[in-house]
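Predict structure. Chain length: 142.
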Amino acid sequence: MYQKVIIVGNLGRDPEMRYTPSGQAVTNFSVATNRQYTTNNGEKVKETTWFRVSVWGRMAEVCNQYLRRGSKVLIEGRLNADPATGGPRTWTGNDGAVRASFEVTAEVVKFLSSRNETLAPGGNAPAGGADLPLPPEDDIPF
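Prediction complete.
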């Protein structure tokens, strides 16, 4: 069996990196994708879908170093279902509305913002973006 999801969007917040007890780097960030369309009655509608993205290994370190809130990225990876429901993770927000989150484990991250948009403080962004695959699934400790 095989599944792959490809999303293109902007980071909603700065990446957060941590290390597992075995020393494996993992970086998490959220990506917003936008869709605009016009209804039959002429009303313009803008939809935003959020994805929670996890990146592992060396690519996690690169993402943490160069990505910032607003950075445009292309993510290729696999969609992770909520074990309890088999769908997206759901919760109730502070306003009482039900919310959903789609979770993706990235296998490839491509930086789409220009160099000036992705410069880290005191550093340079990688020329042409970064495109590093993650280790095989057997090497991911969870």
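Summary: The longest helix spans residues 57-66.
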